[in-house]
Amino acid sequence: MNEKAHRYLTLFLTTLEISAFTFGGGYVIIPLMRKTFVGKLKWIEDGEMLDLAAIAQSSPGPIAVNAAILVGYKSGGVPGALLSILGAVLPPLVIISVISAFYQAFRSNRYVSLCMNAMSAGVAAVVIDVVISMVGDVLKMKRVLPVAMLIITFILVQFFNVNIMIMILVAGFVGYLDYLFSRRKAS
């Protein structure tokens, strides 16, 4: 098997495995992708993964699929993106299909309900870990603005009921101004 085919197979199997063994959506899949593609395979730099995660979160659609597309494209171009999509959506598609066939039995089962509640606690812990890790990465870059925007946005949305879409637009505008300012400063 040539190097390109091996890379595509690894990309597909890796996203398939990550997708098959994560529960809780995109916020859970991002640290696993980071660990694999940055730490283990070394196909992506840590800063790039942080950028890809931010783009995946701000793009429409499921974060896990968006992240898989971006990581796949970065690692293997268009074929890599397509294989990553397939690897990311195949496990949930199969699982949801099986669950839907037996929905009535699952819906009223006390043990399934308890298991789902326990998994929710684990998902919350992973999401908190992702937030702390990403804030740590931003702080390592010695950039105060993104952390300040995170805190301000959280306060405005959580305590003052500011519409999240407004905050996304404001954050995008502030980020663009920061980009222009840093670009001008570098010239």
UniProtKB/TrEMBL annotation:
<dbReference type="GO" id="GO:0005886">
    <property type="term" value="C:plasma membrane"/>
</dbReference>
<dbReference type="Pfam" id="PF02417">
    <property type="entry name" value="Chromate_transp"/>
</dbReference>
<keyword id="KW-0472">Membrane</keyword>
<dbReference type="GO" id="GO:0015109">
    <property type="term" value="F:chromate transmembrane transporter activity"/>
</dbReference>
<feature type="transmembrane region" description="Helical">
    <location>
        <begin position="12"/>
        <end position="33"/>
    </location>
</feature>
<dbReference type="InterPro" id="IPR052518">
    <property type="entry name" value="CHR_Transporter"/>
</dbReference>
<keyword id="KW-0812">Transmembrane</keyword>
<feature type="transmembrane region" description="Helical">
    <location>
        <begin position="147"/>
        <end position="177"/>
    </location>
</feature>
<feature type="transmembrane region" description="Helical">
    <location>
        <begin position="114"/>
        <end position="135"/>
    </location>
</feature>
<comment type="similarity">
    <text>Belongs to the chromate ion transporter (CHR) (TC 2.A.51) family.</text>
</comment>
<dbReference type="InterPro" id="IPR003370">
    <property type="entry name" value="Chromate_transpt"/>
</dbReference>
<feature type="transmembrane region" description="Helical">
    <location>
        <begin position="81"/>
        <end position="102"/>
    </location>
</feature>
<keyword id="KW-1003">Cell membrane</keyword>
<keyword id="KW-1133">Transmembrane helix</keyword>
<protein>
    <submittedName>
        <fullName>Chromate transporter</fullName>
    </submittedName>
</protein>
